[in-house]
């Protein structure tokens, strides 16, 4: 990570955080909201 | 071509044909044809969404841009993930699905038209798609065909014809059911191929520790160009592109460009915001939210779509930048662009030189899958636009929607194929057609679409005024200001003798940055000054 400057590092961290957010949201709400 | 390659092609086409047939057999009415029966499986929906979103040009073009401009392209991966998946599914998805059911809407223009009780809006939306999407589709068609023609040594025009006929077959037969089933297969192929590419690429490059060589390669291959005058470079040469990147404020493949430099404005406004926000108002993607039966499918789609986009987009950009290190090591001290000769050639050359021979074939199929999945959705969306949103509304032919849409699909495919023959020799316009469509859709549709699902007081007049302002502003910016589109389209040069009406940093700012705020302000002010929003909201929300 030290090979990248702050701006690129930030984009990598935010991308990883966005992926975790998508995975966590999907898992926690996997069986919710099924009522049509 | 070996026997295994022949077997792979036959199996691939057979499975595509089978999925097309499954879609055809289960398509009984217009809701099946237009919205896949509103009961699509979440895996199919999210893979279809991702595969439609990502075309060949996104994989090859953007990874080539990463090889040219560096890892700052990862900001686009973040935008794709956070806005293109999380915001799209969680904020827009379920409200669109529920309102679509209440209004009985089957297409994106119909959704807006019924929400505002306006045939004009539905026809206008259909016209935007009918006029501008064929150029975007022909860009994808040309990209996919060139890969097929070059790999198999086939004639370009024959490849274009066969490629189009295969896609036309299953789009016409099974409508959105066939499109989404084949999309899911193609999305899975893309994901597996890209993940394999990442593993092979890191193995070929020598692991994560090789990231430290970014600076060395930049210093040896790009810094010497800084002292050479621009006029000494041959037009379109890789060294001229690298020289331009230094003028634009780029200082290395592991660094962001200088803050507010020309390169920073281009990267952040055109690539990150233009594509990142533009995706929210893409008609062919919005329709996906209306194909599931409950919010649960959308919840599950967030997880699947997130992993898919991260794998296909995020990792591709990182590999794109890293190819500079590999080429420097194994191609006589040249960086990626100097080795390949152009942005679009970097990834194909890297695959050919650094990967096993069999993987080139697998990756070709990933690229063909990316093109086919995007094209099938475009053809379906264009067909529904001209059939259901324009023809049925103008001529009030409400009884044979499926037949009219099928005719519309054929007409629009023919139009896109003809454009592909015409524009094959004018790559500048084709290269910008995706950006033009994204900027237009966001500027024209996004404020009204957002207001439609969140704001009860939005009025028909406000929506129409906003769409008009968005269309005029973005068209003006694309035709007369933004350095890439204005130059490619050539109208500004023809009328005023210059590529752009302005000079300086402003020509690097994307049309979306001006057009979207203006159309948003318009919808708010006009809706507050006019009446009728509450009556429209009653049947849409309650």
Describe what you observe in this structure.
The complex is a heterodimer of chains A (36) and B (542). Chain A contains one helix and no strands. With 36 residues, chain A is mostly helical. The model of chain A has no long low-confidence stretch (mean pLDDT 83). Chain B has two domains: 3-423, Up-down Bundle (Sodium/glucose cotransporter), CATH 1.20.1730; 427-542, no CATH class. At the A-B interface, helix 1 of A face helix 5 and helix 13 of B.
Short description:
With 36 residues, chain A is an all-alpha fold.
List the helices and strands and how they pair.
The complex is a heterodimer of chains A (about 35) and B (about 550).
Chain A: H1 6-28
Chain B: H1 3-25, H2 30-35, H3 42-53, H4 56-69, H5 74-103, H6 108-115, H7 119-152, H8 156-205, H9 214-221, H10 238-247, H11 262-278, H12 283-289, H13 295-330, H14 336-340, H15 346-354, H16 357-395, H17 401-423, H18 427-454, H19 460-480, H20 483-489, H21 491-496, H22 511-529, H23 533-541
Helix pairs in contact in B: 1-8, 3-8, 3-12, 3-13, 3-16, 4-13, 4-16, 5-11, 5-13, 6-7, 7-8, 7-16, 7-17, 7-18, 8-13, 8-16, 8-17, 11-18, 13-15, 16-17, 18-19, 18-20, 18-22, 19-20, 19-22
């Amino acid at each position: 990570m030290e090979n990248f400057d702050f701006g690129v590092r930030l984009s990598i961290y935010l991308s990883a955080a966005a992926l975790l957010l998508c995975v966590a949201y999907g898992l926690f709400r996997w069986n919710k909201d099924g009522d049509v | 071509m070996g026997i295994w390659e022949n077997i792979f092609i036959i199996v691939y086409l057979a499975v595509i044909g089978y999925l097309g047939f499954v879609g055809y057999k289960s398509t009984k009415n217009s809701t099946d044809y237009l919205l896949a029966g509103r009961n699509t499986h979440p895996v199919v929906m999210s893979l279809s969404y991702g595969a439609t979103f990502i075309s060949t040009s996104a994989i090859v073009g953007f990874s080539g841009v990463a090889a040219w401009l560096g890892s700052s392209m990862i900001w686009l991966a973040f935008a794709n993930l956070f806005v293109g998946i999380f915001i799209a599914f969680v904020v827009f998805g379920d409200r669109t699905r529920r309102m679509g059911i209440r209004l009985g809407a089957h297409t994106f223009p119909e959704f807006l038209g019924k929400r505002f009780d306006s045939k004009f809006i539905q026809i206008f939306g259909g016209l935007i798609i009918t006029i501008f999407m064929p150029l975007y589709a022909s860009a994808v068609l040309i990209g996919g065909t060139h890969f097929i023609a070059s790999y198999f040594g086939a004639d370009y025009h024959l490849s274009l014809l066969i490629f189009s006929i295969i896609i036309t077959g299953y789009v016409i037969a099974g409508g959105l059911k066939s499109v989404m089933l084949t999309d899911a297969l193609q999305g899975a192929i893309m994901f597996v191929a890209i993940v394999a590419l990442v593993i092979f690429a890191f193995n070929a490059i020598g692991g994560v520790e090789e990231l430290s060589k970014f600076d060395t390669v930049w210093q040896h291959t790009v810094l010497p160009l800084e002292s050479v005058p621009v006029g000494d470079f041959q037009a379109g040469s890789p060294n001229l592109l690298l020289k331009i990147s230094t003028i634009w404020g780029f200082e290395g493949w592991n660094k962001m460009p200088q803050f507010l430099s020309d390169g920073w404005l281009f990267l952040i406004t055109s690539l990150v915001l233009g594509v990142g926000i533009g995706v929210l108002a893409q008609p062919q993607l919005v329709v996906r939210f209306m194909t599931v039966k409950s919010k649960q499918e959308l919840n599950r789609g967030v997880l699947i779509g997130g992993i898919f986009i991260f794998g296909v987009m995020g990792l591709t950009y990182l590999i794109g930048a890293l190819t500079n290190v590999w080429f420097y090591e194994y191609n006589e001290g040249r960086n990626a662009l100097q080795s390949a000769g152009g942005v679009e050639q970097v990834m194909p050359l890297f695959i050919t030189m650094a990967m096993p021979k069999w993987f080139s074939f697998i990756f070709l199929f990933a690229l063909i899958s990316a093109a086919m999945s995007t094209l099938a959705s475009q053809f379906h969306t264009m067909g529904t636009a001209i059939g259901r949103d324009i023809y049925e509304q103008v001529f009030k032919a409400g009884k044979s929607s499926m037949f009219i849409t099928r005719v519309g699909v054929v007409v629009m495919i023919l139009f896109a194929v003809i454009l592909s023959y015409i524009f094959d020799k004018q790559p500048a316009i084709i290269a910008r057609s995706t950006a033009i469509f994204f900027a237009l859709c966001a500027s024209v549709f996004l404020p009204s679409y957002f207001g439609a699902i969140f704001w009860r007081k939005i009025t028909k007049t406000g929506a129409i005024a906003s769409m008009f302002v968005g269309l005029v502003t973005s068209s003006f910016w694309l035709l007369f200001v933004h350095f890439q589109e204005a130059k490619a389209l050539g109208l500004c040069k023809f009328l005023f003798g210059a590529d752009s009406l302005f000079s300086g940093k402003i020509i690097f700012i994307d049309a979306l940055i001006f057009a979207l705020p203006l159309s948003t302000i318009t919808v708010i002010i006009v809706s507050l000054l006019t009446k009728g929003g509450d009556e429209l909201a009653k049947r849409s929300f309650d």
